[in-house]
Amino acid sequence: MLDLQRLTEDGYLLVPQLVDDKTVSALAREHERFAPPGVPLSVQVQLVHRSRVIREFAVCGPQVALAVEVLGPDVCFTHQQFICKGPEAAGSSDVPWHQDSGYGQLEPPTDLTVWIALDDTDEENGCLWVQPGSHRHGLVPHRSAGDLRGAAVEGDGRPVPMRRGDALMFGGRLLHRSLPNRSAAPRLALYLRYCTPDVVMVNQGDLPVLEDGFSWMVAGEAR
């Protein structure tokens, strides 16, 4: 059982060893098939139509049962990313403070990100940092930061080191960031986003999420 009270209060929840090592290795191999070489920060999105391994994990992996526990019986999968931070020597790989809703706002905001570490991650190689409780203050203004988007935030926040196979769950309004990878090896993670099927995508003209070609019901039914 998840500590839903902690998730409600802090806005995030660490789930240790959600994904077994065999599955982590299979997902990492799929990243290698699609990742461009020599890119400091590689973000590979919506590969579910190109990879059976990624698609089956997104719709049937152990995180789906957790999404049901958080969101209720009717759950839709809507977005996938691989995020790979190369060593700092390859170039800047930091990601500024942001909310996932600062990139793609969903209404109602019944969305849940499941961020899965495919490598051990700590402050040395660019782990996630969070602002506990920031989800309670709504959507904040975001500005362009190169190819990314960022928000003005006071304070350093809290680092969340994770082991390979751990998952961090948080909503679309939690402020989070990651700093550069100062290690000698890449750092890889998988991002999956789930929501309830009544959601519309505000940034796409209030398009119902289930009319997007990358979204599927993974539990329950849509009305």
Describe this structure in words.
With 223 residues, the protein is an alpha+beta fold. The chain has a single domain, classed as q2cbj1_9rhob like domain (Jelly Rolls). The chain contains four helices and 16 strands. The chain has helices at 4-10, 21-34, 52-60, 63-71; strands at residues 12-15, 41-45, 75-85, 95-98, 106-107, 111-117, 128-130, 143-145, 148-150, 158-160, 167-171, 176-178, 187-195, 200-201, 207-208, 216-219. Strands 1, 2, 3, 6, 11, 13 and 16 form a seven-stranded antiparallel beta sheet that branches. It has a four-stranded antiparallel beta sheet with strand order 4-12-7-10, with no helix packed on it. The longest helix is centred in the first third of the chain and has 14 residues, at 21-34. It is globular, with a radius of gyration of 16 Å. The mean pLDDT is 94.
Give short descriptive properties of this protein.
223 residues; alpha+beta; Jelly Rolls; 7-stranded antiparallel β-sheet; 4-stranded antiparallel β-sheet
Summarize the structure.
By secondary structure, this protein is an alpha+beta fold.
**Helix/strand structural class:** alpha+beta
| SSE ordering | HEHEHHEEEEEEEEEEEEEE
CATH-level-2 architecture: Sandwich
- CATH H-level superfamily: q2cbj1_9rhob like domain
Query: How many domain modules?
Result: 1
CATH class: Mainly Beta
Give the overall silhouette.
Answer: globular
Helicity, as a percent range: 10-25%
Overall mean pLDDT score? 94
> How many β-strand runs?
16
Number of helices: 4
